[in-house]
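D-inositol 3-phosphate glycosyltransferase
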Amino acid sequence: MHVHDGARRSGSTRVTLLTEGTYPHSHGGVSVWCDQLVTGMPDLDFEVVAVTGTGREPLVWDIPDHVSRVVSVPMWGPAPDGRPPRGRSRNQLAAAYEQFLTALLDPRAEHGFAAALYTMARAAADGTLSPFLRGDRAIGVLTAVWNRPGLAVREARPSLHDAITATALLEHALRPLATPLPEDGVAHAVSGGVAALPGLAALERHGVPLLLTEHGVYLRERYLGYRTAPYRWPVKAVVLGFFRLLAEETYRRAALITPGNRYNRLWEEQGGADPGSIRTVYNGVDPGAFPMAGPEPERPTLSWAGRVDPIKDLETLIRAFALVRGQLPDAALRLFGGTPRGGEAYRERCEALAAELGHGHAVTFEGRVEDIKDAYAAGNVVMLSSISEGFPFTLIEAMSCGRATVSTDVGGVREAVGDTGLVVPPRDPARMAAAALELLADRDRRRTMGEAARLRVIEQFTLRQTVDTFRSIYLELSALGRMWTPDTAVELAEAGGDDSVSSRTGSMAG
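Structure:
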């Protein structure tokens, strides 16, 4: 669904941002990052292909004039338009789908994933993929595949209900393939997974270079999410197999991968990315927009900012706070940030936990704050309790504001903090509480840490550095795309040096 359409300027470099659940329909760290890139480069021409939930999500960011188009791709809204294939086309698509499913379930057949995916992408462009996947033939193909002798999933005795569920999940996950594809410029997927699907298809069909930035590790977060998902193992085997092979294909085909931290880089290399195609680019903030915070509150206060979501693990933070209150009965915990649609039950669970521990009156969910700086200023110590992060904006923003921090050792947190804050293991309330008490007891140490944290941001993590780096990448990849053919991509790969973006585009040849 087109939610914004403007005029495209002639001659300007074109960047198509590929997002999922973030910009421009949602707030949060990745959305902030996208807005910073777009507003920081008014000389470039941007389009946005945004994978959304229902397609009814409103725009929550002001769209600059140089964003010529925003397309919403709803994964859970009405099915894409189209008709089921017939005759020979139906048989060809069924064969490709069988090859696709076999790759997901049989380690010996994984090499067939890419060819099957791109055949299905062409069917999506023709309007036949989604109707096919909603039909009985697709369910029959899956049932036949996962009941083959020798496949591990067969031992779980998959049912017809499992087949219907898994097929529906794949149909929804593949819907981004039906969106209009960029035909020139650069496609920039700001996460892995389904957001990268239009970029892979555009690379395959039009030679548009694909740039991948993972803030968190998409595949790792799918593993974490599906651990407690209400599906039987045969369904999880299909869906997680898809996400794993999609990640590997994206890593293999991207012209350049720009993780926000070295931790993500390790996952990407393990997933098959060529180390020469990876360049770490840290997130940045504007120190002028996040100046030193004012006086600390008189009451000992821990503050937290983010979206209320299980991956932020507020339950561990609340348990840690209960231990803090055992030593400092007057302490307060203030939680700033919105609750995404569908996350209400998690917030209620957190509120119930605080009440159950006897500290409900001291834990306040403040909701979204008009100026995020107020959230950091509200605490003597700023907390981060996540079980998965990339290079968290809230952390470097709090550091820029000169607040001492206690953070969990996930993703790029250690790279961000250095020695200017305390880092503790995730899911460890006792260690988190001990670190918070250590800082709450020492005003001078908090001040020294806060000053060092701000200096670290100014020296290493400024917005200007981030924007300038991505502008250079966009321009170089766009120039490369104009020269693209399978033969020239190979030639460039053989001729380029290790530090040249063009030397990393052999993957574009497939």
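The longest strand covers residues 45-52.
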